[in-house]
Amino acid sequence: MKLPFSYYSNQDVLFLAKDLLGKVLFTKINGNITAGIIVETEAYFGIQDKASHAYGGRRTDRTETLYSHGGISYVYLCYGIHNLFNVVTSVENDPHAVLIRAIEPLIGKEIMESRRNMPASKAAISSGPGSAAKALGIDRTFNQKDLSGAEIWIENQNTQYSSDEIESGPRVGVAYAGEDALLPWRFWVKGNKYVSKYKP
Fold first, then answer.
1. pLDDT tens track of the chain, all 200 residues?
2. Rg of the Cα trace of the chain?
3. Strands (E) located in the chain
4. What region does 64 belong to: left with phi over 0, alpha with psi -120 to 50, or beta?
5. What family is this (predicted)?
6. How far apart are CA 109 and CA 9, in angstroms?
7. How many Cα atoms occupy the beta-carbon half-sphere of 95 within 13 Å?
8. Running DSSP on this structure, what letter comes out for residue 127?
9. DSSP letter at 79?
10. Domain ranges, ordered by start, for the chain
11. Beta strand residue intervals within 90-141, DSSP E
12. What backbone phi and psi angles, to 5 degrees, belong to 22?
C-alpha cells in the first residue's frame, strides 16, 4: 500500500499536490504508529517559483534536500517554532515539493491528543502545517527521510476525491513572492473540518 518510489518522480508538482489529497501519511516513533488522511496541500514549483526555497536555483545547507530525487522528506523550522513537513517530488536537481498543510486523524488518535494536548475531535489538532506535523510527531530529525522507509511513509488506501470535491486558492504566508503569491496552488478537500481556516 506504500506509494512506490516512482510515484514521487512525477515532474508535475501540481498534479501530485492534488493527488496526495486522500493519501494517508504515517509515522512510526518508538514503536508508536500515528497516521492521518492528507486533506490540504501546497505545491512549490522549484527554481521558477518565487515562493520556493529553491527559487532561482538557490542552494544552501537547508535547501539542498530539495534537489534530491523525489520521495524524501524536507522538514524545516518556520518562525523558529513550527516544523513543516514537505514531500520532495520530481527528479534529481529539479527541486519541487508539496507542503502537507493538514491531516484528518486516522490512527493513533490518543497519541496525537497527547502531543497536541487537545481532543482529536477538535479541528485544531492537525489543521495547519505546524499542527499536522506536531500531531504526527514530525520534527527536524525527520528531514531527508526516505518516504518508503519504516519511520515515515505515505499509503494509498483508495480514498479518492473527485475534482468537484477539491478546492484551490493562493498559498499561505508567501506574500514576499509577489505575483507568485497569487497562484492557486493550495489544494484542499471541500468541507473537511481539518482544513486550515485561512481564506484569501
1. 999 999 999 999 999 999 999 999 999 999 999 999 999 999 989 888 777 777 787 898 888 999 999 999 999 988 678 899 999 999 999 899 999 999 999 999 999 999 999 999 999 999 999 999 999 999 999 999 999 999 999 999 999 899 999 999 998 888 889 888 888 999 999 999 999 986 54
2. 15
3. 24-29, 32-45, 73-78, 82-89, 96-107, 152-155, 166-169, 186-189
4. alpha
5. Belongs to the DNA glycosylase MPG family.
6. 31
7. 22
8. B
9. T
10. 5-189
11. 96-107
12. 95, -20
Closest by Cα among 84, 2, 70, 4 to 35: 2
Q: How far apart are CA 31 and CA 28, in angstroms?
A: 6
Going by C-alpha positions, the residue among 160, 167, 153 that lies closest to residue 22 is 160
Contact present, 33 and 95 (Cβ < 8 Å): no
Q: What letter represents residue 197's amino acid?
A: K
Cα torsion 51, 127, 147, 180 to 10°: value is -10
Of 8, 12, 179, nearest in space to 86 by CA: 8
Q: Which residues contact 82 (CB under 8 A, 6 or more apart)?
A: 129, 130, 133, 134
Q: What's the pTM value of the predicted model, to 2 decimals?
A: 0.95
